[in-house]
Amino acid sequence: MTEWRPPFALVGAWLGLLVLLALTVTLAYVPLGAANAVVALGIGTIKAGLVAAIFMELRHRSGLTLIFAGAGLFWLGILLWLGSMDFLTRT
Amino acid sequence: MPESSAFAPQYASVPHRDHTAELGMWVFIATEVLLFGGLILAYLVYRHAFPQGFAAGSRHTKIVIGTTNTAVLLTSSFLVAWAVEIFSPATTKIVTWLLVGAACLGLVFIVLKGIEYGKEYDEHLVPGIDFQFAGPKANGVQLFFVFYFVATAIHALHMLIGVCLLITLAIICRRAPTTRHHAALHSAALYWHFVDVVWIFLFALIYLPGRSSS
Prior knowledge:
The complex is a heterodimer of chains A (91) and B (214). Chain A is mainly alpha-helical and 91 residues long. Chain A has helices spanning 8-28, 35-55, 64-89. In chain A, helix 1 (8-28) packs antiparallel against helix 2 (35-55). The longest helix of chain A has 26 residues, at 64-89. Chain A starts with 7 loop residues before the first helix and ends with a helix. The relative contact order of chain A is 0.08. The model of chain A has no long low-confidence stretch (mean pLDDT 93). Chain B is an all-alpha fold and 214 residues long. At the A-B interface, helix 1, helix 2 and helix 3 of A face helix 1, helix 3 and helix 6 of B.
């Protein structure tokens, strides 16, 4: 009769995501200067990592699936890196 | 779980077919990453050019609605992941209800988003329709709200498509589920989780900047 219960990892990820959400909203009201943006995007990245690893089951995958899943991120990295280089370094 | 007997000749086996479906979904998600990536690049460029305007615009967004919507979306993702995990002929009823629950949370998200759009319209914050903002930051605030409406509208469209997918799968899974349906549910779940990830970043970029200053 336990087959309908959600696995512990899923419940943990869900509660962890809600805690991280509360944390990121709270920290947004703490004056940290330029670090506010870093904290917001850092926590966002951790949340996205939790969703990808546990909800999207990437922690159980290997090889080809990880390459396919990582390809989008790789292209996004090139887009954001080369796209932002000029205006971030312009004096 | 019963396997559907037939699979197309290019596949060696049922697991091969399902693995290929999963890879195909990841290719589609990569194209979606680049769609939202272009939006985020535009955001970074304009936020760099108008930091004060973006902070001021951000403070005019409704953080209570935004935070509630994030929690709603994370919970719906949890329900979908749960449904994928327990999917079997013995659990069709609960899988159906989990998917219906997730779809309902998706609708809650869209309704709250609509209420938020209404409030922004009342405050004259919709560029191109009714935008009035006094002071030197007006240009930056207007650019912020252009990004805000384009990005959230494209995201909401993805939500609507996702809700339709979840409802369709809930109907299919109520009948005799096979491995083929499990693969379909898994693909739809990947899409739903991806839309959730996009919102996680939109939330950080739209609602959080400028909150610690006034």
